[in-house]
Design brief:
59% of the residues lie in helices and 1% in strands. The chain has 538 residues and is mainly alpha-helical. Among the domains are: 11-66 and 122-225, Serine Threonine Protein Phosphatase 5, Tetratricopeptide repeat; 250-342, Serine Threonine Protein Phosphatase 5, Tetratricopeptide repeat (Alpha Horseshoe).
Length: 538
């Protein structure tokens, strides 16, 4: 999948670009904030989002420059060489037009000279043309033509292109998924020291059979694991994400993975606060101020924060150990398509003491226990009580103003799960939760308004609610905004912005966003056998 980097996007889209750091070696260092940061001798550590003084790089650093960058050429000489058909001069001229180095910024001229150099076979130019095509930057969005450019560049052994091509063999959007081809391309890029490829290999090695790895290959990959790892094993600036919808392979003690995911998707405030987290032996040590920040992010609709908060309750990290509160957070995260929460919830349910504590709280008529039982029934994780009984539990918890239960009950009526469908009643229920301060309830009302055209608020107010919630990390809001951009509902239609947001949500684990992406890709899919993709992710 390719991230969006077109000029003229609104502030929300710009914030989305900023929140996902570009981390790519062998790129245009002059435009890279990362390079500037790393060159600062005063810095006590590497530039990483796990530190509160993290500095985000410029998105234009994803473009590849040739080794001989014609730095000594004057503008006139460079143009002369380019016009005479020198592909490296053409490519350098394209990069300078893109970055405004010696020439006014001009995306179309940059694209023109990139095409010229690509037509003459320069691998870096083919790679950059793929970036243009994959992002719809100055040219019609076409990930299939982008794939063809990346493939040619990868055949020239360019590590950037090998990495991108490897991910394209994984996402099952442009070409059919092929684990073996993915591994070979990513491994080859990693052997050349390409940092992002090294990171991805750590994920691949967890599934050696699926990727067709033999014992020698596994050993070689494990050697790469000893190198430093970035917070995110993807480069969303390239727009190609590692989307893993297989059963979660998270180990029982791998709290660091949860932390990394919160850092990747969290707001600036959350990243700043989590920069103070202490890591010891793959476990977290957090003070109360950090926990409060995580709680706020969870309430704002971040499934990553909800999952991490559940983990903190389960293990007693910065909070009193509480298995029932852990279950509450995991259930909420599952509702928001968390990739990690389903397994963590199932593991929690398997603990002998869990149901003993839950039943004790049910006998004490605690609202949280009612919500857990009803939530497990709604998610089909438990059949010990009937659906009508589960609904009555939600009603009982709602009567004492337990907000998660109010939201869940509204969802039951909105979807027709466990009761007859009544969307108007669902809105009335969510309004109660919104009056109690629930951000998620406000988001769900806004979504209902833009998708169902209810009259509870005008579309302008709904879009405002969704933007604010998305800024705070709400996956639901990001998905809804993607729908609005795709359909032009309450906002100017913008397919590229829709693509961008669907990709962000897919990376966060949303199957709904992935299906939306597949629909958009299918809409322009060429009639070639190479691009026939089957729905094998179900």
């Amino acid at each position: 999948m390719l991230f969006l980097f077109s000029f003229g996007q609104d502030a929300f889209a710009q914030r989305q670009r900023r929140k996902n750091p570009v981390s790519s070696n062998n790129t245009v260092e002059e435009a890279s904030g990362l390079a500037k940061h790393e060159n600062n001798k005063q810095e006590p550590h590497a530039n990483s989002p796990v530190y509160k003084d993290y500095k985000e790089p410029d998105s234009t650093s994803l473009f590849k420059r040739t080794n001989d960058s014609y730095e000594l050429y004057k503008s006139y000489d460079l143009i002369k060489e380019a016009n005479q058909g020198n592909p490296r001069a053409q490519h350098e001229l394209a990069v300078r037009y893109l970055l405004g180095q010696g020439f006014p910024c001009d995306t179309l001229k940059s694209l023109y000279w990139t095409k010229k150099a690509a037509d003459l076979g320069l691998p870096e130019a083919r790679y950059n043309l793929g970036i243009f095509l994959n992002n719809g930057w100055g040219i019609e969005w076409n990930p299939f033509k982008a794939y063809e450019q990346f493939k040619i560049a990868a055949e020239s052994k360019m590590p950037d292109a090998q990495y991108v091509l490897g991910l394209m063999y994984l996402d099952n959007l442009v070409v059919p998924r092929d684990y073996r081809k993915a591994f070979l391309n990513i491994r080859d890029a990693a052997k050349k020291g390409y940092k992002l490829a090294i990171d991805i290999l750590q994920e691949i090695v967890k599934n050696p059979v699926e990727f067709g790895l033999d014992s020698a290959e596994i050993r070689s990959v494990k050697l790469e694991e000893r190198k430093p790892v970035s917070v995110s094993a993807v480069n969303p600036a390239l727009g190609v994400n590692y989307m893993d919808f297989r059963p979660d392979s998270l180990s029982k003690t791998d709290d660091i993975t949860l932390l990394k995911e919160v850092l990747r998707e969290g707001s600036d405030e959350l990243k700043f606060a989590l920069g103070k987290v202490v890591v010891r032996d793959t476990s977290l040590v957090a003070d109360i101020s950090i926990i409060k920040t995580i709680q706020e992010a969870a309430e704002n609709g971040s499934p990553e924060a909800q999952t991490l908060l559940g983990r903190c309750y389960e293990k007693g990290i910065g909070l009193k150990k509480d298995l029932l509160q852990a279950a509450v957070q995991y259930i909420r995260a599952v509702r928001l398509d968390s990739r990690r929460a389903p397994k963590l919830l199932l593991v929690l349910l398997s603990r002998p003491e869990f149901y003993k504590q839950l039943n004790a709280m049910i006998n004490a008529k605690r609202a949280g226990a009612y919500f857990i039982y009803a939530g497990l029934v709604a998610l089909h994780y438990n059949s010990q009580v009937t659906e009508p009984e589960a609904l009555r539990m939600l009603e009982a918890a709602s009567e004492v103003k337990y907000v998660p239960a109010i939201i869940e009950m509204g969802l039951c009526y909105y979807t027709g799960n466990m009761t007859r469908q009544d969307k108007n009643k669902a809105i009335t229920i969510w309004k109660q939760a919104a009056e109690l301060g629930s951000s998620e309830a406000r988001v769900r009302i806004a979504i209902a308004n833009v998708q169902e055209h209810f009259i509870y608020q005008d579309s302008t107010e709904s879009i405002k609610v969704l933007r604010e919630a998305a800024e705070a990390g709400s996956l639901l809001a990001e998905m809804a905004l993607a729908y609005c951009y795709e359909t032009g509902t309450g906002i100017q239609q913008d397919r590229l912005n829709a693509l961008h947001l669907y990709k962000v949500c897919t990376q966060r684990g949303s199957q709904g966003a992935y299906r939306a992406l597949k629909r958009l890709y299918d809409g322009i899919r060429p009639d070639k056998k190479e691009f026939v993709v089957f729905d094998n992710d179900k």
